[in-house]
Specification:
The structure holds three protein chains of three kinds. Chain A is built from 26 helices and two strands. Chain A is mainly alpha-helical. In chain A, strands 1-2 form a two-stranded antiparallel ribbon. In chain B, helix 2 runs antiparallel to helix 3. Classes of the chains: A mainly alpha, B mainly alpha, C mainly alpha.
Chain lengths: 615, 102, 500
Amino acid sequence: MFESLGWLPTFPLLGFLILFLSGGGLPKRLIAVIGAGSIGLAFVAAIVVALPIISGDAEVIVHEVYTWMAVGSFNSAFGMYLDGLSVVMILVITGVGFLIHLYSTGFMIDDPSYSRFFAIMNLFVAAMLVLVLADNLLLLYLGWEGVGLCSYLLIGFWYQDPANGYAARKAFVTTRVGDTSMAIGLFLIFTQLGSLDIQESMALAQGEWGLDSGYAVAAALLLLGGAVGKSAQLPLQTWLPDAMAGPTPISALIHAATMVTAGVYLIARTHALFELAPDVQLLVALIGLATLLIAGFTAMTQHDIKRILAYSTISQIGYMFLGLGVGAWSASVFHLMTHAFFKALLFLAAGTVILSLHHEHDIFKMGGKWRQLPVAFASFLIGSLALAAFPYTSGYFSKDEILLAALELEHAGFWLWLGGVVGAFFTGIYSFRLVFVVFFGESAGHHEAREVTGFSMAAPLLVLMVLALAGGLIHVPTESVFAASEHGEHHVSALMHSIMIAVPLLGIALSYLFYGSRTLSVERLMSNTIAQGLHKFWFAGWGFDGLYRRLLITPYVWLAAVNKRDVVDTAAGLLVTLSEAGNSLLTRSQSGSLRWYILSVVGGTVLLITLGGVL
Amino acid sequence: MESIPFEHGLMLAATLFCLGLIGVMTRRNIVFVLMSLEIMLNASGLAFIVSGSRWGGADGQVMFLMILTLAAAEVAVGLGLIIQLYKRFKTIDIDVLSALKG
Amino acid sequence: MTLLWILLLLFFGGVFAWLSEMLDSRLPRWIALLSVVATLIPLMQLYGSFEAQRDSLWIIEFSRSWIPSLGINFLLAVDGLSLLLVGLTSFLGIIAIGAAWVEIRDRVGFFYFNLLWTLAGVVGVFTAIDLFLFFFFWEVMLIPMYFIIAIWGHENKRYAATKFFLFTQFTGMLLLVSLLCLVYFFTIQHGYLSFAYEDLLRVEVGGKLEMWLMLGFFIAFATKLPSVPFHSWLPDAHSQAPTAGSVLLAGVLLKTGAYGLIRFTLPFFPESSMKFTPVALTLSVISILYCAKVALGQSDIKRLIAYTSVSHMGFVLLGIYAWNLIGLQGAVMTMLAHGLSAAALFSLAGGLQGRLHTRELGRMGGLWALAPRMAVVALFFSVAALGMPGLGNFVGEFLSLLGVFSVSIWAAALAALGMIVASVYSLWVMQAVFQGARNTEEAQASLSDLDARELSLYGLMMVGLVLMGLFPNVFLDVSAIALEHLSSASDAFVAVRERL
């Protein structure tokens, strides 16, 4: 019964509708069953539809539900399109999504807004599925905005604290900047090519726009704007660290595994367009590189366990962008998948740590917790190994492919590779800094830690641990999607390869010296002013927030406040003033003296007669 | 029969009208103002009659009859108002009576 | 005949509602509701036969001689465009009556009389195709609205009502003068007097004078729309009007301006409208961005929503001056969707004011915990207003922008920035009212959530917006034929469009 693609988003949507319409009146157990069960059903449906494609029986499955909008020459269907690329996405979304939902049933159990949480989570999954299954850019945009809305709602889930509301609005508005760019890109594509259907418009673009043509460059740039916003890349990355204000499962699902990778998906989906604009494609790589380095530096300085993971997410998506930029489409999608495994694992483990330590976020107030929190410790260890690309973990395979592909690029290739390797070094440092500080050393806080576990929370962690370790063995079935444009085997020297293996290990070792064995002292490093200044600068995320505040937010708010009374209205006010002045002028002539009136009547008559005579 | 020249009649009417006008403009006593108004009305009536006889039509006399009735009505109402004003304000000086000032 | 029935239902319904107050003060609202609901029946029938306009210009016509010596006839007709707008009027009439249900306590009969006469005036405006009759209805809808604001409004009602009246009346005069000039030219060119729409389409004025006449029409309609710089009556009128007044004002009265532009200004004066396009596009972009910015600075929730209305109506102006079907359809869709979303937001603001006795945002906050249903409803409509795909407003704004993009890339790109600023103010309102810490004022302690009556009203509008967002063609198909007819309405119009 699940053959139709239409079932996929329907299950989560139904879950949402039931929870929404019941208005929170259902018992918690039932809410959990509906909330997680709908995603489970969607996962089953996803496997059913994915099987033919994975086994190679079919290359694509198309399903058109109905015509959404038809105006004159403009036509947009509510149509779905499944190929190797979207197969990866739907399996990640529903699979990892289901695990996170399952985890949430335990994690959120004490929250009074249990129903609201699952309602929005289900809506999110539905929107995300629409995003990746859409066969045209307008429908993709629907999913794109839908996930943005859910992200907003979930970041501000605990709405009582104004700071959460601020973070939520920041996330929405910042991504909206990118979305608007993308919308303009859609206008351009439709106006020039006459279609928003992805496959059709890509084919048309290849036919009608030449390599490096202005339209191709403009369209690619505009779509890149959207991708950059959603995937928290430079210069729109500032919203993601603040987005950690939401409950931790949200961070795992939306701000690590699925939504933030939508930008990567968009570029991979429209790769034909980017191939027509090599300069823009290089820009994608450079943005990815700059982002992964900047976020890597920042991650090393943060104290908040979730912010570290957030910056690490930004950095890892930077790798994916780097991969897209060098044309390693499959490698990027591969990294997207493995990243979803190990980052979801890390976030869920962080959630367990936070919950067990009574909502403590500062890693320096944790310390030495590996005995008390064995499951979380194991998860963190495995997750961090994968994150740092420890050989033969999932992250190793995917990151390796991206870097090797970068190396093969002409001209800039070596430098992109080098940057990526440096980034991997930082990844090793910050990921294990987290592990050493939280789980080893002396217990800094006086928290009485009791690990919160239970089947619903432990099982997803275990599954994700397996995936984070062995996920690299999964084959990504995207050959048919990117067939025309990908290189085969990579040939690099053993030296390069060993560098790539060694560098993260060096990072881990350095981290051990600083935070594990304490043979090197952070305090000594921080004793001079330059280091302190740098630390402060990195800690503040390279000052982007301050820059935007000074450049955009403050002036805009000031303008709005200063013009509260609307200057245009003064024009209307001027009319009022004028007529009142005229009134008082004429009132003065109304003296009440009868003789004065007569005099003016006579004077007027004489004047008129004279005028008549003259004319 | 030698008739009075038509210009003379008009001249007389104009003079009377101006006299009345000056009276209206300069007198402060409201009874005198009313009397001056009567003079102005009669002056215009005279002008109607004169011009009526000049053209040999009856229109001038008809108009005069109307002015006559109008003047009578006006005097009746006007004097009534003046008596009321005097009763209320104890004065008939129009410079003092400016309560209708806008 | 059907059209006359709709008008008579509203006119006489109003009179009966007024009279019935003498029997029982609860009677007027029931009579008003019944007569508005009754108008839906003929409208449904007309909707069922909208295909009829393929062969003729109109779905249905009604014509009677009125003042033959001046060439004035009582001509009513609907095509797809007016049918949609009349439908919107009736729908929002029901919403307005629902909003006034308990809010209006004194002079109830006279209130519903005014309400129904406003509706009748609006329906007349949408259906009249004799320009004299059109002008008559244009004035008819104005006066009862004036009373609604001036009698049942809030603290500064006289000022607001007078401002509203003067703005509309003055620009109405410009419309009348231009109209009379147009008729004069028709008489010279064709030898007989006529105010009929189809006759006046054939007038050729030409030259500078055409530009002036076009401006007369444009300013009258742009004031109603409203567009910068003629918008400043709107925030005052909205903040002072009772809820039902705001609903009608935002929901339907503003749409008469857009309707006038589509139906009259462009087809009557194609040549000069074409020349005027850059100015109109600039005005719409300024409306969108400037008013969104001013909205953020407001502390009065109704003023804020009023400014957002101006901002959204900018998309309508933008779509109209795109000179293509996509843009026009975008304008129509924005009109419908904004009619619902703005009406809902004003009702919510009215509901808040009724409960908290204030419109100041600073005195609200944290209401989610107290009134979760209200919060969810408000969230829905805020999100609709900021252009979430899947809801009606998005379809409208997207099509408007798409239509304009092929004409002026810069206008489209700048107007698209409106989507960003819309999210800034919409979410700010949600934060200020429903999220954050609880405000400790006493009035909030006893805040009641939405009751069944309110929920059903909002539910209706929510279903409407989702329907528009997911199945826009239910509406677009109806207006498509009408807009195609319109674009070939006169030879001059066709000629101008072909040059594009």
